Design the sequence.
């Protein structure tokens, strides 16, 4: 099995000892994306703006590996407040109009840098 690290300057750099994504054969394992801009600064705004930035970051990482949202097979959404679910679900759904991936959504006590949302993904490249 061939394993390669994927990174792009179109998404924020990792804030710790991890890769933006790891490609293992035709699978891409995307680390959780938080609402940082590619320059590492925090996006301004609430849950709507944060979710839009997380989706943009996730898209940039997946595209850097040659993939697309249509190839995502599983996501996990981490929220600090499940009352934000309706807003997040609306934005998320706009990106997956056909064959949406399997998904789990969980409320957590805290996320890195005090953000409100984080999303990770598994992608089947070439699918």
Sequence:
């Amino acid at each position: 099995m061939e394993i390669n690290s994927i990174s792009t300057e179109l998404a924020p750099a990792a804030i710790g000892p991890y890769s933006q994504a790891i490609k293992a054969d035709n699978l891409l394992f995307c680390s959780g994306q938080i609402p940082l801009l590619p320059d590492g600064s925090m996006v301004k705004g609430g849950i709507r703006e944060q979710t839009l930035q997380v989706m943009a970051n996730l898209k940039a990482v997946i595209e850097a590996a040659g993939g697309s949202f249509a190839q995502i097979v599983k996501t996990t959404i981490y929220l600090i407040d499940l009352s934000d679910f309706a807003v997040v679900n609306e934005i998320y759904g706009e990106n997956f109009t056909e064959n949406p991936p399997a998904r789990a959504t969980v409320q957590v006590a805290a996320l890195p840098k005090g953000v409100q949302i984080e999303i990770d993904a598994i992608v089947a490249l070439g699918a």
The mean pLDDT is 96. The chain has one domain: 3-124.
